[in-house]
Specification:
about 55% helix; globular; 2 domains; 11 helices; alpha+beta
């Protein structure tokens, strides 16, 4: 399975694209819609769960079981994402995505969500979804069975006005780049030369399986990743920029969490 994702400026546009997907025969359990917009009335009827607390998978399982029949759809749930706020998720697949946000990819949201659903999620894109939601966008995901179907989904979402995840990722980094370049000056190295590996470290710190963990819990995996990168780029001094980027990424996510708690 492959995940095809579109980022929409409005929920209305995303819902139209979702309807188009479903009209072509895409089953509802292969789609997910995540939105921060227009959900105040809907949220009154849905339990809110903080994604940073332990046991996120079980909590979402309870929501899935109790949300059937709500006006928002057959399956609806709401969580509070650090730095994002309240998010409404529609569709069975949304449970898998939200569980991944809160508990790392592979977490199972109750018995209704099988491991096969979370296996196809691009865990390295989750922070891009979060940033889009933080900006008031709506994210639509669809699971394709093969490359041909994935291409068809891409074309349909693009035709409905979706921005690609790659484009959203680049916009996210453009918004951060100047501040990160300024911060990097103290290292005495060239940001232009090191940016690729600095950014790799920064993004890896936002990975669902890494964030919110103590530094010593991720050190072994981070070291192994650096060793793999060194094999791919022999002769390049990449460990230092990667580590600095990773540390800045951890600080960035912590700031988002702090801002969310203060709001």
């Amino acid at each position: 399975m492959k995940t095809v994702t579109g980022v929409f400026r409005s929920r209305v546009d995303a819902e139209r694209a979702l309807s188009q997907l479903q009209s072509t025969g895409v089953a509802s359990d292969r789609t997910a819609l995540l939105t921060p917009e227009h959900v105040k009335d809907e949220l009154k009827n849905i339990p809110i769960v903080a994604s940073e607390q332990p046991g996120m998978g079980k909590a979402i399982g309870a929501l899935l079981g109790g949300a059937a029949g709500l006006s928002t759809g057959p399956l609806a749930m709401a969580v509070v994402l650090p730095g994002v706020g309240q998010i409404l998720g529609l569709g069975l697949l949304a449970g898998a995505v939200l569980a991944a946000f809160g508990a790392g990819v592979g977490a199972v949201a109750g018995e209704k969500i099988e491991n096969s659903m979370t296996a196809g999620l691009p865990e390295d894109e989750l922070f891009v979804y979060e940033d889009a939601l933080r900006k008031g966008r709506t994210v639509l995901l669809a699971m394709a069975e093969d490359d041909q179907e994935a291409h068809r989904f891409h074309m349909l979402l693009e035709a409905e006005g979706a921005e690609s995840v790659d484009a959203a990722r680049e916009q996210w980094w453009i918004g951060l780049r100047s501040a990160e370049e300024e911060s990097y000056k103290s290292s005495g190295r060239s940001f232009g030369e090191d940016e690729k590996f600095y950014r790799m470290g920064f993004e890896d710190a936002l990975h669902a399986r890494s964030r919110c963990k103590e530094y010593d819990q991720v050190l072994a995996e981070m070291t192994a990743h650096i060793e793999d990168l060194q094999k791919q780029y022999p002769g390049i001094s990449l460990a230092d920029p990667y580590m600095k980027g990773y540390e800045r990424g951890r600080d960035y996510y912590q700031e988002l969490c702090d801002q969310s708690k203060a709001a």
